[in-house]
Amino acid sequence: MTKDLKSNALKVATAGLLIAIGVLIPLVSPLRLVLGPASYTLGSHIAIFVAMFISPGTALAVTMGTTVGFFLGGFPIIIVWRAASHIIFVALGLIYLSKIDKRALRGLRLRVFSLWIGIVHGLSEAAFVLLFFMGQFPAGQGPLWILAFIGAGSLLHSLIDFEAANIVRNVLYKAKLL
After folding, report:
1. pLDDT for position 110
2. How many whole angstroms separate alpha carbon 17 and alpha carbon 70?
3. What domains can you pick out in the chain, each with its CATH number?
4. Does pLDDT of 24 surpass 80?
């Protein structure tokens, strides 16, 4: 087997495993908070963040795969929409990562990257929820509620999951798997 074929096979297998992890965590995790269209399951973004450091194709496959997984898992359609919105922060993050040495991304620079994609993550989820409701908000859940609980909540959730993914990334680097 050629080196390129082995590398591609490893990326496909890794993407499949990360999709499985990304779908399984929201299904079985006891660390979950659901408040209407807002839902936060700690660890649910780890697979996507790790995939971003593997390759663009892996990251996009994991993002789409986890979205389909949420749909097939019977999650409310608003949650599926929020998962679909991840393609925005993933795509923007991949553009940035393509321009730098990913192994050098650490310390303050890593935290700024995490904050930046977390802000994009929160805003894109809030935008998708606002579009979903199209002005017909559930009682007590207007645009400010959506921005506060979806946008800010997703930002905080993103920051926590990114730190966990960074631990996984460092272990994979040390094991020479990335």
Report:
1. 95
2. 16
3. 3-174 (1.10.1760)
4. yes
